[in-house]
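Deliverable D5.2: sample structural annotation.
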Amino acid sequence: YQGIDTSTITSNPPIETLKEEIDAEKRLISTIPSDDVALKAKHIKILAEKEEQLEVILENQRVASVVQEHEELYPPTNIEDCPICLETIRITDLNSMTYFGCCGNGYCRSCFENETDGISRLKSCPL
């Protein structure tokens, strides 16, 4: 899916590892004497960061699941295939595809912006 950035899901430690680290941090905090405030604060901060990281991973997965379910129930109707990169492009605005006036064929925005192929300099349809 183009709208969800899944890189954060794969670059973070696995959920089970993160849960184990959170549990270990909680056990460690419980063993720190209450008069060692600086050390306890340091580990509470580490615990909070790990818990937040876990929440972000779980929320990203939840959102991706909801988006996938929505797309299965309501498949996009405004889609076209780019003849250059062969990607299926969801038409979300007027700039999603660039069309030629001569024949009505079009290609996607990323191909239009890709200067290495010289495609964006085309004045007429390459097809």
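Annotation notes: The radius of gyration is 24 Å. Residues 1-10 have pLDDT under 50 and may be disordered.
The annotation will be released with the project's public dataset once the embargo ends.
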